[in-house]
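Bumping my old thread because nobody answered last time. Still need a sequence for this structure:
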């Protein structure tokens, strides 16, 4: 696996009611489809009331394609009654959320705990 690839959804599970999806590398046009697939797979397994944490500590860049993948995951999570959080987002990621008015749509946290 290269540093640009996202974790396989089967290894993203962290517990019965908590799922951590580690993201490595850029969340950009080239990698957004893989991110979307991973998040969709995890969310399809997550029962209502569970938490999905997108661990962004190893990702420093996000463009509109990456943001759209996160927004699609947020919508899917809401429809399933699952909470989704963004853990350790980079300054650039926070700025993208602010500039697009998406900052209020996600719960941000400093760690995956």
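Sorry it took so long. Here it is:
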């Amino acid at each position: 696996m290269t540093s640009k690839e996202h974790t396989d959804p089967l290894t993203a599970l962290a517990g019965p009611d908590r799922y951590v999806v580690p993201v490595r590398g850029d969340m950009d046009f080239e990698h957004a489809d893989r991110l979307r697939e991973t998040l969709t797979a995890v969310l399809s397994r997550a029962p209502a009331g569970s938490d999905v944490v997108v661990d962004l500590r190893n990702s420093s860049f996000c463009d509109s394609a990456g943001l759209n993948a996160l927004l699609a995951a947020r919508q899917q999570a809401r429809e399933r009654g699952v909470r989704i959080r963004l853990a350790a987002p980079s300054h650039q990621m926070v700025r993208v959320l602010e500039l697009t008015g998406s900052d209020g749509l996600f719960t941000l946290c400093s760690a995956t705990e």
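The radius of gyration is 13 Å. Let me know if any region looks off to you.
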